[in-house]
Write a structure and sequence with these properties.
This protein is of the alpha/beta class. 35% of the residues lie in helices and 17% in strands.
Length: 260
């Protein structure tokens, strides 16, 4: 899909506003504006030169560990459907680690891939302990007959990894590949935090496509694009670099130009 390009793919992040079931959900405002804002951001990302999109329920903070409520899944599916309708390959991440639910949203909407936290190995995130899910997730995917790729985070941001501290990133990447991931994502330590070029190279040893998952700016986009197969960019593409604000088309164009 994306990895057949002759260059590094640029994937723009669509952050959903608060969905039903989250603390900041505004029932009086309703879901319509959330969907409209997601569609607007998707259109601006594609106008600026993104090759693909990924949606995320970022506005639902603080997150539940390893699951989301049924009403959240339903709303996420409606919002994702609006983004998929923009015509670009689209991925889904449901926080925190709600990978089976994200797979269901893909099946319902025609989205292409999920971004999976805690696919292989456990870690402690700010939501709590997230356990590995590869065995269950891939069985569900097979049972559904779903043509949905799994992009697995390796040493995910916003998490402590002391529980796997005896394994370096290369070993963790190989473990995710062994468990059946289709691609690997490496990140910095927090949203917008820079991703180490050394970590990208370490993950490549596992033999899968490698995606940079945080902290990309025009200053480091060039070197990262030479090492990675795709870049997921969210915060920097928003007005003033703030993930809470709308997408700024000119920032998207600037980053696209930095990739060459």
């Amino acid at each position: 899909m994306l990895f057949g390009l002759n260059r590094c793919a640029l994937i723009g992040m669509v952050h959903f506003g608060p969905l039903p079931g989250s603390p900041a959900w505004d029932a009086e405002r309703g879901l319509g504006p959330v969907i409209d804002e997601a569609r607007r951001d998707a259109e601006r990302l594609l106008e600026g030169g993104c090759d693909a999109l990924i949606v995320e329920n970022m506005g639902d903070v603080p997150y539940l560990p390893g699951r989301v409520e049924p009403e959240t899944v339903a709303a996420a599916a409606l919002a994702t459907q609006a983004v998929v309708a923009c015509g670009a390959p689209t991925g889904v991440q449901l926080l925190a680690g709600a990978n089976r639910e994200a797979l269901g949203v893909c099946v319902a909407t025609g989205a292409s891939f999920i971004r999976a936290e805690a696919f292989a190995y456990a870690h402690v995130a700010d939501e709590g302990l997230l356990n590995a899910c590869a065995g269950e997730l891939l069985r569900v995917r097979r049972g559904l007959g779903a043509d949905v790729a799994v992009w697995a985070d390796v040493q995910k941001k916003h998490a402590a990894h002391a529980i796997t501290g005896d394994l370096d990133l290369e070993s963790l990447a190989k473990g995710a590949a062994f468990c059946g991931a289709d691609a690997l994502i490496v990140t910095g330590k927090h949203t917008g935090g820079p991703t180490s070029l050394d970590d990208v190279h370490a993950a490549r040893v596992a033999g899968l496509p490698v995606v940079v998952g945080s902290g990309v700016t025009p200053a480091d986009a060039g070197p990262l694009s030479q090492a990675a197969d795709a870049l997921i960019v969210g915060s920097w593409l928003k007005e003033q670099g703030d993930w809470r604000r709308p997408v700024d088309v000119e920032r998207v164009r600037e980053l696209r130009a930095a990739l060459g």
